[in-house]
Design a protein that fits this description.
single chain, alpha+beta
Length: 219
């Protein structure tokens, strides 16, 4: 190899080297840091703790359709259930499709002292609600609770009733004296892949708490 050729290759190396270093830096920045997740002791898809194991059938992604009881206006949306915080909580993210705007983040857990399930619901109307449940009654799980923030006190009930495989009905009701008044009802279907497993939509939705434009629809 001649001196001229060696010099040319060395010059080319000096030109390429910064680009390689830059590419490595960009890759390092683009790769998420899993140290926090590992420090929390979790795998990518943690399983629920034993006290929440009965809620496992909810885990997955559901597509829902229904209507408001008062005016029969249609509702469409998605609900995603996923174990979180090392399986100590079941995270529930609900997002209506436009023109409706309801978006919520719920955390379902278990109160070992009271020996019942507990659900904390936050929504995009700055509301917060606390619900409790004694557990399954046949194929239905009912939550009863009240407003903590963002509205007047109002006793409410959510009921999740499982039907055939991958089908559930969700009802939201408000107390009307000695009876319950239906607010809305949804029929939800779980998404599966071709092998009959929960589909690839298991990931949490991007920016889930940003409401789409449309009319207000609280519940």
């Amino acid at each position: 190899m001649t001196k001229a050729r060696s010099a040319s290759m060395f010059a080319l190396f000096l030109i390429v080297l910064p680009f390689c270093a830059s590419a490595q830096t960009m890759q390092a920045k683009a790769t998420p840091d899993d140290s926090l997740h590992q420090a929390q002791g979790g795998s990518a898809t943690p399983s629920l703790k034993p006290e929440l194991a009965s809620l496992s059938p909810f885990i997955g992604n559901w597509t829902c359709k229904g209507e408001f009881a008062s005016n029969h206006a249609p509702i469409q949306g998605d609900i995603v259930f996923a174990a979180d915080l090392e399986g100590a909580w079941l995270e529930v993210r609900h997002k209506d499709a436009p023109p409706n705007r309801y978006v919520s983040l719920e955390m379902w857990g278990y109160d070992k002292d009271a020996k019942n399930f507990v659900a904390i619901i936050h929504d995009n109307f700055s509301g917060a609600r606390l619900f409790t449940s004694s557990g399954w009654n046949g194929n239905a799980l009912s939550w009863t609770g009240d407003t903590l923030l963002g509205g007047k006190k109002s006793l409410q009930r959510f009921t999740y009733e499982t039907k055939d495989r991958g089908i559930m009905v969700v009802r939201w009701e408000v107390s009307a004296g000695s009876a319950w008044r239906l607010g809305d009802e949804l029929t939800c279907s779980k998404r599966y892949n071709r092998r009959g497993e929960i589909g690839a939509m298991q990931q949490k939705p991007a920016n889930p708490l940003t409401p789409p434009p449309g009319r207000l629809n609280e519940r």
